[in-house]
Amino acid sequence: MASARERMVVSAALLIRERGAHPTAIADVLAHSGAPRGSAYHYFPGGRTQLLCEAVDYAGEFMAAHLGRASSGLDALDGLFEYYRDELQRSDFRAGCPVVAVAVEAGDPDKPEQSAAVRDRAAAVFARWRQIIAELLTADGVSAARARELAVLVLSSFEGALVIARAGRDLEPVEAVHAQLRSLIVSETPSARTNREPQ
């Protein structure tokens, strides 16, 4: 059974992905997680900034594990889009990426130290996801330099598709980007050419 602290981190990540970072208050996290009132500063003496950082870390680990289970770059791509396609539909298009939310909103000029801490955590998560994708593509026979380029393209296109899909409450951007990226990876990955159709 998850501890109150763990429940708070998960709740923060879930709330941030649907509401954004700024609208997600510690009181919301306490209510969502069912953690005792007053426990926030016991578990997170660094306050809201620490909670945001740990929520980003949790989201990063969750998706890194998801990507890490893939057998190939193509499998990782399909899994990424399939997971979020389901999440968008299940949440009525509220579920976005919590890492994007904090990266976009971590720009408060009145609190540069807090903003930098959260932004740096988000940057580290994006770098890790790109590395996993690039390593899978390299294992598929793509050159290391090209795999790094493709990993950036996959991740940035995926995140952009999520934003557009949420705004329009329509899966078409997700479907279109998935199909285009899939065709590109198939064309550049010899081992993927026998597996052309999405799962």
UniProtKB/TrEMBL annotation:
The reply on keyword DNA-binding is yes
Against InterPro entries, the record matches this protein to: Homeodomain-like_sf, HTH_TetR, Tet_transcr_reg_TetR-rel_C_sf, YxaF_TetR_C
- Can you give the residue ranges of the HTH tetR-type domain? 12-52
Listed SUPFAM superfamilies: Homeodomain-like (SSF46689), Tetracyclin repressor-like, C-terminal domain (SSF48498)
Q: Give the highest taxon in the source lineage.
A: Bacteria
Family matches, as Pfam families: TetR_C_13_2, TetR_N
> Has UniProt tagged this entry with the keyword Transcription regulation?
yes
Gene Ontology molecular-function annotations: DNA binding
Give the record's keywords alphabetically: DNA-binding, Transcription, Transcription regulation
Transcriptional regulator LmrA/YxaF-like C-terminal domain: from which residue to which, for each copy?
A: 75-180
Q: Which PANTHER family does this one have?
A: HTH-TYPE TRANSCRIPTIONAL REGULATOR LMRA, TRANSCRIPTIONAL REGULATORY PROTEIN
Q: Name it.
A: Putative HTH-type transcriptional regulator
